[in-house]
């Protein structure tokens, strides 16, 4: 599974349906607008590259590759490169790979990496006589029109859902206004620290510095949470020690003493996940309380922390 890169995404069914609906609306408008400039048959290749963009804009609206400049720059630069290669290189078997390769290089230099741009460059070369006759007009109609259409749908559609605002700048702006003190939560970590850390990879990483800071903030806040008081433990519930890697563990209380609580009553637990899985043990409520970092519940393929902060 790890070799194939299969990840367990914690995404709810509603989010999946919203992404699918957004992609449907975006491509519907793109397909409709393309038919004004080229025939339906020729538009298939053009719409194909926009279909790839739709996956990014509606399934990963906050990803760096999905933001307006990568979408606009990636498609337009690739379209220019594709038309140029189609005009200057007579051998299509060399023109096609050259168009994609040059487009990738230029997207890097212009800071607008957008994978579907490669398909746009390829479409300009192998799209047929009708697209060849358009020449550099292909960059404006239909490519620019399609880009404007899909970005407009992404902006308006994601605006309906406050957690999906597009572009990502709108979400970050809202987060800053709602939580002014979050900037202080990063401790001694500075912008320069993250720039250095990212530069060590020497490769493009599909996550922004702001997203990394947000993840760091959420992780540290949870990791430094206080232990659960023994009086709040409940029979049959699941608890995690909040550790990482091989030390992480989830235990379920399966039985305990119903005597007057002093914290020294014994309880029996079963290890459900992580270290020593399927084993059982006995300890006092006080000991279990010192081990347990937070209560958790099973959420499809993952364990999710139970937020008890709103409880009296």
Strand content: 5-15%
> Low-confidence stretches at least 5 residues in length (pLDDT < 50)?
180-185
Strand order across the largest sheet: 4-3-2-1-5-6
Separate helix tally: 11
Mean pLDDT: 82
Oligomerization: single chain
The N- and C-terminal alpha carbons lie at a distance of: 43 Å
Order of helices and strands: HHHHHHHHHHEEEEHEE
What form results from the Cα inertia axes? elongated
Number of beta-strand segments: 6
Structural class: alpha+beta
How helix-rich are the residues, as a percent range? 40-55%
Can you walk through the features of this model?
By secondary structure, the protein is α+β, with helices and mostly antiparallel strands. The protein starts with 12 loop residues before the first helix and ends in a 7-residue tail after the last strand. Helix 1 runs antiparallel to helix 2 (40-59). It is elongated and about 85 Å long. The protein is built from eleven helices and six strands.
List its traits.
6-stranded antiparallel β-sheet, alpha+beta
Topology of this protein?
Blueprint lengths: L12 H22 L5 H20 L8 H21 L3 H18 L6 H11 L2 H6 L2 H22 L9 H11 L12 H9 L9 H15 L14 E3 L8 E8 L9 E9 L5 E5 H7 L2 E6 L2 E4 L7
Antiparallel strand pairs: 1-2, 1-5, 2-3, 3-4, 5-6
Helix pairs in contact: 1-2, 1-7, 2-5, 2-7, 3-4, 3-5, 3-7, 4-5
Quick synopsis:
The protein is α+β, with helices and mostly antiparallel strands and 312 residues long.
């Amino acid at each position: 599974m790890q070799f194939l890169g299969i990840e367990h995404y914690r995404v709810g069914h509603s989010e999946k349906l919203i992404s699918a609906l957004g992609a449907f609306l975006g491509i519907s408008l793109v397909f409709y607008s393309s038919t004004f400039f080229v025939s339906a048959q020729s538009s298939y290749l053009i719409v194909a590259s926009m279909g790839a963009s739709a996956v990014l804009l509606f399934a990963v609206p906050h990803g760096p590759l999905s933001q307006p400049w990568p979408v606009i720059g990636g498609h337009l630069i690739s379209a220019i490169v594709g038309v140029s290669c189609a005009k200057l290189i007579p051998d299509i078997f060399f023109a096609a790979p050259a168009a994609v390769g040059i487009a990738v290089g230029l997207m890097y230099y212009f800071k607008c990496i957008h994978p579907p741009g490669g398909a746009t460059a390829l479409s300009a070369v192998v799209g047929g006589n009708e697209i060849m006759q358009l020449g550099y007009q292909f960059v404006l109609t239909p490519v620019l029109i399609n880009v404007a259409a899909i970005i407009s749908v992404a902006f308006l559609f994601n605006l309906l859902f406050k957690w999906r605002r597009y572009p990502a700048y709108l979400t970050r702006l809202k987060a800053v206004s709602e939580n002014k003190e979050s900037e202080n939560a990063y401790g001694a970590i500075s912008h320069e620290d993250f720039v250095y850390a990212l530069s060590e990879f020497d490769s493009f990483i599909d996550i922004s510095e702001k997203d990394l800071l947000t993840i760091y903030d959420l992780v540290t806040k949870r990791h430094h949470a206080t232990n659960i008081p023994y009086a709040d433990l409940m029979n049959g519930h699941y608890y995690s020690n909040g550790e990482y890697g091989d030390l992480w563990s989830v235990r379920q209380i399966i039985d305990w003493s119903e005597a007057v609580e002093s914290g020294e009553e014994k309880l029996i637990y079963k290890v459900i996940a992580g270290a020593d899985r399927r084993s059982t043990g006995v300890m006092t409520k006080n000991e279990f309380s010192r081990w347990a970092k937070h209560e958790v519940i099973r959420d499809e393929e993952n364990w999710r922390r139970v937020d008890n902060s709103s409880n009296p």
